[in-house]
Structure formats: structure tokens, C-alpha cells
Write a structure and sequence with these properties.
Elements lengths: L14 E6 L8 E8 L2 E6 L11 E5 L1 E5 L4 E12 L2 E13 L5 E15 L2 E11 L4 E12 L2 E11 L4 E5 L21 E3 L8
Length: about 200
């Protein structure tokens, strides 16, 4: 849910309020990857203990409500949290419907996007979270970090329905609607997986 806001666009200094109750904002990775022909597929943790109905808090330097377009634009050091999940970006747009209660349908983020949970971290130039489809797409200089394990590519797709994440070497351009730019990668996925040391 989004707390009541004025019907006309306005900006505030350092907005910080509870606005969303998302069904799923999750990004966790068990790095059991099979890297084949410039792509990698990973099992994504389901965060069974995470409460996806918990309120989401946000902070930003500026907020603008575009009521006719049914969207909220956050700019400047955007920081969104839901319990122990965190999304940071330079700019974020929230598209919503308000038939009876406000329901966020999509989140577009651009500018140094970072999603973290515990020791797990995903980053990219731009990101789109399609809430009805439960798909998170990150594009441009994508990097996954889990502890000391790393994985780098051009495009990351997380399917929260199947629990499968895939990384491609080529970014293929920014997701529609983000307004971001990406740097085309070499078409290869690279990474480092640490091997447990055997006792001597």
C-alpha cells in the first residue's frame, strides 16, 4: 500500500516514509553455476523466511507524484528496504494501479542499481522488477556477489516463479522504461568460485 499523497506532483526534501507492500522483492543466489556459451544459470534462493507482505520504506532526495500517469518518481540517493532486503539507485519509478487500494505493478531503477540481502549482492546499470510476473531484470555491467564468490555479465534475469536466475554475457540494451544506458560487454560471463580447503 502507498500512504496517502497529494493529487498533484510535488517534491520534498529527503522523503522517508512507508509506501509499499510488495509481494516479492527478493534477490538471493546459491552460486551453483553451469557456465555455457557465454551464459550461466543459477539456482536462486526462495527466501522462505522473508515476509514479502512487510511494509517497504523508502528514502530519496526528491519525490514526485505523477497522479495522472499513476506513478511515483524518486530521485537522488534512492534507498528502498523491505525487512532485510535493500535496493539502492540514483532514480526509481514506481508504476501503480488504484482501483480500490494502491497496488504497485512495476519498479524501474537506473543509475548504479544495487540489491542486497545479507552477504548477497546484485548490481547493474539498470533494473526492472515486474511484480505481477515476478521477474527481476538487471542490465549493464551486471555483477553477483555471494561471500567471496563472484559472477559478472551483461544481463541478469531472476524468475521468482521458477527460482531460476540466468546471466548472459551481452547486455542487449537497457530494459524498456528505465531510461538508462548500458555498456555492451564482450559477450562472456566471467566469475570466481572459491573451493573449500581440505584439512591437511
Amino acid at each position: 500500500m502507498i500512504d496517502p499523497l497529494p493529487s498533484s506532483p510535488r517534491a520534498t526534501d529527503r522523503v522517508s516514509t512507508r509506501v509499499l507492500a510488495l509481494r516479492s522483492l527478493a534477490c538471493g543466489f546459491a552460486l551453483s553455476a553451469a557456465v555455457v556459451a557465454g551464459s550461466a544459470h543459477l539456482d536462486a534462493q526462495t527466501f522462505g523466511k522473508h515476509n514479502s507482505n512487510a511494509p517497504v520504506n523508502f528514502g530519496a532526495d526528491r519525490m514526485e507524484l505523477q497522479d495522472k500517469q499513476k506513478r511515483v518518481v524518486l530521485t537522488g540517493n534512492v534507498d528502498i528496504t523491505q525487512e532485510d532486503l535493500r535496493l539502492q539507485a540514483a532514480r526509481t519509478t514506481l508504476a501503480y494501479t488504484d482501483a480500490q487500494t494502491v497496488q504497485v505493478q512495476r519498479i524501474d531503477a537506473a543509475g548504479g542499481v544495487v540489491v542486497t540481502r545479507g552477504d548477497q549482492r546484485a548490481s547493474g546499470n539498470t533494473a526492472v522488477y515486474d511484480i505481477p510476473r515476478k521477474i527481476i531484470t538487471m542490465v549493464g555491467n551486471v555483477a553477483l556477489r555471494r561471500g567471496k564468490d563472484t559472477l559478472n555479465g551483461g544481463r541478469l534475469v531472476i524468475d521468482l516463479n521458477t527460482g531460476l536466475s540466468s546471466v548472459d554475457g551481452r547486455s542487449g540494451g537497457a530494459p524498456s522504461g528505465t531510461g538508462g544506458t548500458t555498456t555492451t560487454s564482450s559477450g562472456r560471463v566471467t566469475g570466481t568460485f572459491n573451493v573449500a580447503k581440505k584439512a591437511s
